[in-house]
Amino acid sequence: PSRTFHGNNRLLTSPIISYYESINQHKRELPEYFNFAGDVLDEWARLEKDGRKAANPAFWWVNDEGEEVKWSFEELGCLSRKAANVLSEACGLQRGDRVVAVLPRVPEWWLLNVACMRAGIVFIPGTSQLTAKDILYRLQASKAKCFITSDTLAPAVESVLPDSQFLKSKLIVGRGSRAGWLSLKELL
């Protein structure tokens, strides 16, 4: 079955279904290693740069006050590489390490998600409604080495730090700063 999506005249399901059918029938080679950030986002950025793909935003965020953040594929790629460097260098994380991110859905949430994909770091999202007890449980169960949050949510993390034996770094997202925390904005 084919249908249009949100008023777009392009058919979406037919090509997707036929692609997956070809994989199921072993007519397509699957890559041994796949990384969405490098294999998809960077490829789309290259196609846009070469003029073989129309320029469209890769990311478009609007808040309740009408503030917008719009990134092209090239900008998202560049920013996610910088954020991946922050995670691996400043935070000391390696491929396979875990990061707990308790943030509202601000642009950095998506940026860090892509950066983790790029660096092979496991991104564990959490809602900003988590209590200190919930945060401690997630830190202990996941053995996360980094915690990412906003300056307003940081006190809940600080209250459980003595019981978080695996945590190596703490990263603040947004305009605020906090003693003992790294600032994503400054590091980018």
From TrEMBL:
User: For this UniProt entry, what's an example GO CC term?
Assistant: mitochondrial matrix
What's the catalysed reaction?
a medium-chain fatty acid + ATP + CoA = a medium-chain fatty acyl-CoA + AMP + diphosphate
The record's InterPro entries line, in alphabetical order, gives:
AMP-dep_synth/lig_dom, ANL_N_sf, Mitochondrial_ACSM
Q: Which domain of life is it from?
A: Eukaryota
Q: Does the keyword Membrane apply?
A: no
Residue stretches making up the AMP-dependent synthetase/ligase domain: 56-175
User: One Pfam family from the UniProt entry?
Assistant: AMP-binding
Molecular function, one GO term: ATP binding
Q: What enzyme category does the UniProt record give? A: ligase
Q: State the family named in the UniProt similarity comment for this chain.
A: Belongs to the ATP-dependent AMP-binding enzyme family.
Protein's UniProt name: medium-chain acyl-CoA ligase
Organism of derivation = Aegithalos caudatus
- Lineage summary: Eukaryota, Metazoa, Chordata, Craniata, Vertebrata
Q: Which gene encodes it?
A: Acsm3_2
